[in-house]
Amino acid sequence: MSVSVVFLGDGLIAGGQWTEWIPEYEVTNLGVSGNTTDEVITALESVVGLAPDAIVIHVGTNDLGWRKSDEYVVRNLETILYRLRKALPGTRLLVQSVFPRDREFAETIRSINRHIRQYAPTQHAQYLDLWPALAQPDGEINSNLSEDHLHLTNEGYQIWLGELRAGLELLFERPPITTSIPIQHA
Q: Sorted alphabetically, which Gene3D superfamilies does this protein's record hold (predicted)?
């Protein structure tokens, strides 16, 4: 029996070769380049209609490009998680941290990630913190992983995939109603 996983979010999701990279899952990629949290909210009904076994969410960085506040992004991410949980109580939800970008966004992104890490368990969603794998100590995305401080290089995607694989394994080991996924970094 195949396990269906919907990838939901922005251009970083859209750019991933998820079907090829994780062939053990039946993947539907609903990432759209330029998507903000507002666009993801408007697309939720189509996601619910698919009734997948799991939903992997990554969105929020484009909101920052439109100068939305951390409170705005957090509220929308909370809305996404709440609506998905209410409509799909048996679906596993994995929300990923907003990736680091330019240094100027570091504190805002840290604030968003801190709030979502705390909120995710209230909706029985698991949180995958990718910040340690992608950020430099100053909060900027590692320059080896992004040429423009936003989109990932092939190496960046491979690092994300490694973290995500571990996160998905843990996601499916637990019932749909658990808490954050602790990933140990060497």
A: SGNH hydrolase (3.40.50.1110)
pLDDT tens across 81-111, in order?
999 999 999 999 999 999 999 999 999 999 9
* Per-domain residue ranges of the chain: 4-173
Q: What is the pLDDT of residue 175?
A: 76
How many residues belong to the chain? 186
Interatomic CA distance for residues 115 and 109, integer angstroms: 10
Decide if 46 contacts 78 (C-beta within 8 A): no
Helix 70-87 vs helix 37-50: crossing angle, to nearest 10: 10
Query: What architecture (CATH level 2) is domain 4-173?
Result: 3-Layer(aba) Sandwich (3.40)
Sequence-separated (6 or more) residues with CB below 8 Å from residue 11: 31, 32, 33, 34, 35, 62, 151
Alpha helical stretches, state H, the chain: 11-14, 18-21, 37-50, 61-65, 70-87, 106-119, 131-134, 154-173
Reported pTM: 0.92
* Strand-by-strand arrangement of the 54-58 sheet: 26-31, 4-9, 54-58, 92-96, 126-128
Other CB atoms within a 10 A radius of the CB of residue 152 amount to 21
